UniProtKB/TrEMBL annotation:
Record key words, sorted: Signal
Source domain of life: Bacteria
The name this protein goes by in its record: DUF2490 domain-containing protein
InterPro entries: DUF2490
Signal in keyword set: yes
Length: 261
């Protein structure tokens, strides 16, 4: 019982510190509505063969279950170096629309390729995932421009099973993460994403998560016509509903219920 209390206190303290930092740096106006992220994921674990992968579809709306404006289709191949280390190569298509004029087609279509390295840590009741990603991004905008960008991402994700010591069948769990997005050519700090949610793993296949995510974009400082404008940050809160189906494979190691994106 004492260990459970310490785990709970550590979890809440870390979340409050991260939340305070995020909100201190984020400008949210009263008119900014909550959005919605709906995520459906099919996962093939590495298992004894070590080779795995995933496929995912995602839809986002500007409001809560309305004003749809964005979708993602992506997938990748992974390889487990051992139970704590894995690598992945993946790609996807990302389309952004004007929710008031969906029939006009996408404003922007992005095609993305990324390389990823993941480290898992199992500290008794606490489970940590460290994810490092390098992205190559090709854009096709409605105005005819086709820019290319690189991006670096790092995410630390913490899981706390509530009614079991491991995340297995019939387990409720907490999940929290913070992810930073870096631009290698500057301005360096581009985006921050913080998430907190609760999930339930029904069996070895089905996992449901519901949570909150705040995504904050950082605009660089500018100096134009003798006027200095400091760096600004604008963020948006979103309701996240994620459903994962994990294909059965022989494995003796614990699998964290991580969200691929």
């Amino acid at each position: 019982m004492n260990r459970l209390r310490v785990t709970f206190f550590f979890t809440i303290s870390l979340f409050i510190c991260t939340l305070s930092r995020s909100l201190a740096q984020t400008s949210l106006t009263p008119a900014t509505p909550w959005g919605t992220w709906l995520i459906g994921t099919l996962v093939l674990p590495g298992g004894e063969k070590k080779w795995g992968g995933f496929a995912e579809v995602q839809a986002r709306s500007n409001g809560v279950f309305n004003q749809y404006f964005y979708n993602e289709l992506k997938g990748g191949i992974s390889y487990d170096l051992d139970k704590n280390f894995s690598v992945m190569v993946a790609g996807g298509r990302y389309a952004t629309y004007d929710y008031q004029a969906l029939s006009d087609g996408p404003l922007t279509i992005e095609k993305r390729l990324w390389e990823q390295f993941t480290i898992n840590q199992y500290l008794s009741r606490l489970k940590f995932e460290h994810r490092y990603r390098i992205e190559q991004r090709w854009f096709s905008n409605r105005d005819g421009t086709t820019p290319f960008r690189n991006r670096i991402r790092y995410r630390i994700n913490m899981f706390v099973p509530l009614n079991n010591h491991t995340v297995t069948a019939k387990t409720a769990f907490l999940s929290m993460y913070d992810e930073i997005f870096l631009n290698p050519i500057g301005p360096t700090f581009e985006r921050n994403r913080i998430y907190a949610g609760i999930g339930y793993q029904f069996d070895q296949q089905w996992i449901l998560q519901v949570g909150w995510v705040n995504q904050t974009n950082y605009n660089p400082a500018t100096f134009e016509s003798g006027v200095y404008t400091p760096q600004s940050a604008t963020g948006k809160n979103n309701l996240v509903v994620g459903l994962i189906y994990r294909i059965k494979r022989k494995s003796t190691s614990e699998k964290l219920p991580t969200q691929p994106d």
